[in-house]
Specification:
Distance between the termini: 49 Å
Number of domains: 1
Shape: globular
CATH topology: GMP Synthetase, Chain A, domain 3
CATH class: Alpha Beta
Strand content: 15-25%
Strand order of the largest sheet: 1-2-3
Order of helices and strands: HEEHEH
Largest sheet: 3 strands, mixed
Number of helices: 3
CATH superfamily: Fe-S cluster assembly (FSCA)
């Protein structure tokens, strides 16, 4: 290789999986009371993609059963997940066990909230 030639790019970046794209979509949804997205808050417990059905199952919780967005947030999550390329259907399961605690906050969320 001459001094003017650039080295070949290392291995090309792998395209994001459907699950990764869903998580990125979920990171655009914010809790109305806490200025942190629902993924970093630890409200999303599981994201499962069924490739055959092109369907995503999201298991999530809320900060409390009396959360003011309890009636709307699961629908917003479903709509956002269905907007991801490669997803034809989505099912959002709202669960209360295990209950949400501040221990579920990501390190980034703790830093953003001044808890570290």
């Amino acid at each position: 290789m001459s001094d003017t030639e650039q080295p070949a790019d290392p291995t090309p970046e792998q395209p994001a999986t459907v699950e990764e794209r869903v998580v990125e979509a979920l990171r655009t949804i914010y809790d109305p009371e806490i200025p942190v997205d629902i993924y970093e808050l630890g409200l999303i417990y599981e994201v499962k993609y069924d490739e055959e059905l092109k369907s995503v199952h999201v298991s999530m919780t809320l900060t409390s059963p009396s959360c003011p967005v309890a009636g709307t947030l699961p629908g917003e999550v479903e709509t956002k997940v269905k907007s991801v390329d490669g997803v034809d259907d989505a099912f959002v399961e709202l669960v209360w066990d295990p209950p949400w605690t501040m221990d579920l906050l990501s390190d980034a969320a703790k830093l953003q909230l001044g808890l570290t």
